[in-house]
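SAMPLE LOG
Freezer: B-3
Tube label: C17
Construct: single chain, 174 aa
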Amino acid sequence: MKRLALIAATILTATALSIAPASAHATLQSSNPAENAVLDAAPDAVTLTFNQNVQSNFATVTVVGSDQSQWAASEPVVDGSTVTVDLDGLGAAGEYTIGYRVVSADGHPITGSIPFQLTQGTPTPPATDLDFTNEALPAPQPEEDNGFPLWPIGAVVAVVGAAGVLFALRKRTH
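STRUCTURE (predicted):
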């Protein structure tokens, strides 16, 4: 009986200690251009690849130059976990930032920005005929898991396991 109680307590303790919060949100895996890339020529498009599918009806991607000009020439196209937006060239040499906001399959919004540099500018004017509803994206915030905290469950499992061990090991008096 004592051995069975000890085994049960060990299993409960191991289970309680191994509980971790679930992380089902999409995360950016790669981008083209890559973060902090230095380019000689403007790319034709920007591509963002996430670790899971994102919802197509909530994707927003902007490409903003250091003068705050918008350079995206199309609405974002979502294909599973890949989001693409066409560019119609870029402006002067300098810093550019890709801003994105997508919604993962679980409904959690994901935002971020990817800086890159263009070393040789072109005289192409910025795309101005598009009507983006999100003209500026907020600065990316560290991702938080706002799900249910699992540590209280682990604590309850540990307390119940300890109580079970104490109950099993107590001296029986008749």
